[in-house]
Design brief:
Elements lengths: L2 H15 L7 H19 L4 H30 L6 H8 L5 H16 L6 H26 L8 H31 L1 H7 L4 H27 L7 H27 L2 H7 L3 H28 L3 H9 L3 H20 L7 H8 L3 H13 L3 E4 L4 E4 L8 H8 L4 H5 L8 H15 L5 H12 L1
Antiparallel strand pairs: 1-2
Length: 443
């Protein structure tokens, strides 16, 4: 086998089958990081991330001024509205002088927008436009997390209002404190003393990165309508902050060397650069979310591929694993288990588990309970045979096998022998005995 073939096999198969627990710590970290990077990169093959980023650019253009107007009103109530322009200017800094021009234009629009004279319909439209921006962000993140159902209208109102009120206030306050600390006389004196001056200068350079990482972490933790672990949100937040910094430097170099675009687009060059930076920014946000998702569900990429390919072995293993978890829950005397908790227990995406649950509910092996809300077995596990579970997974396919194709040549007889052998091998095996197998082996 050639070296190129070895490399290809490593990335396609070996990398995903390595038992990371059996390798040294540094190598294990490298394996996880490589898996994350490759899984996220492969998402671009389906062109889903860039399509969602494009949609968010369009929504941002419609909602940016109303969103900033609402945010400006909130910040004004706390007396920190003067900081909105420096924060916006810093976000558009990679555009160079064009960024300053766009910042002044947007702030001018916000200043000219008088909420008091809009009337009830105008104010309602303003808030709806702001709501639609956050709603589109949630839809994009829910799609990455494979969440089928978003928040209810009541939850959206409460959560989105909190995001509009608390998020901008914390960000603007943090950058405002950073600016005031740098201008403080006592701090300036400390800066003259070494090594404190060097350490404080380093901390001042790192603080914007920390704030940005915190902002992305907050976004990935609370906006998706699913349970996101803090460490996974933090991985996505740090990744997005690093990419934002790198993209900012690269985009600034691009803008500095793209004087010819001004000759081609004339006055529209500023708008074109602004749209490009918006697209890059949203793409970074979605890439960070994808890192969070794959960090929380490290086997999700392979599992999703197997599920989409309709692999029968994977469906059987998923259904039995799911039923084993619920059987243990039943034997402990605990109540129904919510789908989110079941997905966490199986280390799989919620939507994938939910789809399998719906199939098992249709076959009456599982039931949806209302109080307490969750999923549970419909009968004791000792009454559910493994053969019954496998038949439920194959539901709708057994009849197809009995249809004569005209030239069976003993095929039907061979398949019947196979089914009989499976039935004999699994005779007496139930969900309860499947759960108790590891216990009997230990004793």
């Amino acid at each position: 086998m050639t070296k190129l073939a070895h490399i290809s096999q490593f990335f396609k198969q070996d990398l995903w089958t390595i038992d990371s627990a059996s390798v040294p710590t540094l190598q294990r970290i490298g394996i996880h990081a490589l898996r994350l990077a490759i899984a996220v990169a492969l998402e671009f093959r389906h062109r889903l991330l860039d399509a969602r980023a494009t949609g968010l650019v369009y929504t941002t253009l419609l909602s940016l001024v109303p969103f900033l107007a609402v945010m400006f009103s909130v910040l004004k109530a706390f007396g920190v509205h003067q900081q909105i322009e420096p924060v916006l200017a810093q976000a558009l800094e990679p555009l160079g002088p064009n960024g300053q021009e766009i910042t002044r234009t947007i702030i001018g629009f916000v200043d000219n927008l008088k909420i008091g004279v809009l009337g009830i319909v105008g104010v309602a439209g303003l808030f709806y436009t702001t709501y639609s921006l956050i709603d589109k962000i949630e839809e994009a993140l829910n799609a990455i997390w494979l969440v089928r159902e978003g928040r209810s209208w009541g939850r959206k109102f409460a959560d989105y209002l909190s995001a509009v009120l608390v998020g901008p206030l914390l960000v603007v306050t943090a950058f405002g404190l950073l600016a005031s600390v740098h201008s403080n006389t006592l701090v300036q004196r400390v800066l003259d003393i070494q090594p404190f001056g060097y350490l404080m200068l380093l901390a001042g350079q790192l603080l914007p990165f920390v704030i940005l990482s915190g902002l992305f972490t907050f976004l990935y933790k609370f906006i998706p309508h699913t349970q996101v672990r803090f460490d996974s949100a933090l991985v996505g937040g740090i990744t997005a902050a690093v990419l934002w910094g790198l993209a900012g430097e690269a985009f600034a170099m691009f803008v500095a060397q793209s004087a010819q675009y001004s000759a081609i687009y004339s006055g529209f060059a500023v708008l074109v650069l602004f749209l490009l930076w918006l697209y890059v920014g949203w793409l970074i946000v979605l890439i960070g979310a994808q890192f969070s998702f794959f960090h929380q569900y490290p086997t999700a990429y392979v599992s999703r591929l197997l599920w989409q390919q309709g692999t029968q072995a994977f469906r059987e293993r998923l259904a039995l694993s799911l039923l084993v978890v619920l059987t243990r829950q039943y034997l402990k005397g605990e109540g129904p288990m919510p789908t989110d908790d079941l997905a966490v227990e199986l280390h799989l995406p919620v939507s994938l588990v939910a789809e399998q649950v719906r199939h098992l509910v249709d076959t009456e092996l599982l039931g949806l309970m209302a109080k307490p809300e969750g999923i549970s077995l419909t009968k004791p596990p000792e009454l559910v045979s493994i053969k019954e579970v496998l038949d439920a997974i194959h539901k709708g396919r057994a009849a197809d096998a009995t249809i004569s194709l005209g030239t069976d040549d003993g095929v039907q007889e061979m398949l019947c022998r196979r089914d009989t052998a499976i039935e004999q091998a699994l005779a007496g095996q139930t969900l309860r005995s499947l759960v108790e197998i590891p216990l009997s082996r230990k004793t």
